[in-house]
Amino acid sequence: MPLQTRHVFIVLLAFALLAEVSSKREISPWTLLGGLYAGAAVCSFLGARLYALVGADSIGPALLPVASAYFAYVVLAALIRSRRLIERMAKREGMTGQGAGSAGMPKACERLSARYALSAREAEVLTYLAGGHGSPYIAEKLFISENTVRTHMRNMYRKMGISSKEELILRLEEER
């Protein structure tokens, strides 16, 4: 693969990572793009200084492996950081989809699940509903369709003798 083709591939990969990170809204796309541009400018400056110090003959063969190793480091660091972020979010949510401000809801969900003999999946859906999440979010988190989420909700409502999400929240608040 010619050097120019590799360069294009690396640039495309960097922009794909930029799109992925900004789509997750961890960092605004403009901040991320500005950081990447500033990083590229610093690297170019340092590379020019290194080139001036070492000379043209000795830097050429070492440049591609060093640049490739640095790029691999940046990609791996980003992947590790995103994995840690996901793990922290999972811990914070208690692996149940609980958001902030829902103190006491997991216990209330457990008690309601036991009292009304909800299935394990219905109990999971109940916990997400108690956290204020809607059907699309629950479907994504549980890897099921929105129709399946609504079916679980209908079954829960039937077992609990209620007919709306508002009544469900009232039951949960009473149980808390």
Describe this structure in words.
The structure is a single chain. α4 (about 105-115) packs antiparallel against α5 (about 120-130). By secondary structure, this protein is mostly helical. It has helices at about 5-25, 30-55, 55-90, 105-115, 120-130, 135-140, 145-160, 165-175. It is built from eight helices and no strands. The model is unreliable at about 95-100 (pLDDT under 50).
Chain-wise SSE layout:
Elements: H1 3-23, H2 29-54, H3 56-92, H4 105-115, H5 120-130, H6 135-142, H7 146-160, H8 165-175
Helix pairs in contact: 2-3, 4-5, 4-8, 5-7, 6-7
In short:
The protein has 176 residues and is mainly alpha-helical.
Distance between the termini: 63 Å
Strand content is: under 5%
- The helicity comes to over 70%
Largest sheet: none
CA radius of gyration: 25 Å
Number of DSSP strand runs? 0
Query: What's the overall average pLDDT, rounded?
Result: 76
Note the run of SSEs as H and E: HHHHHHHH
Q: What's the tally of helices?
A: 8
Structural class: mainly alpha
Summary keywords:
0% strand, mainly alpha, rod-shaped, 176 residues
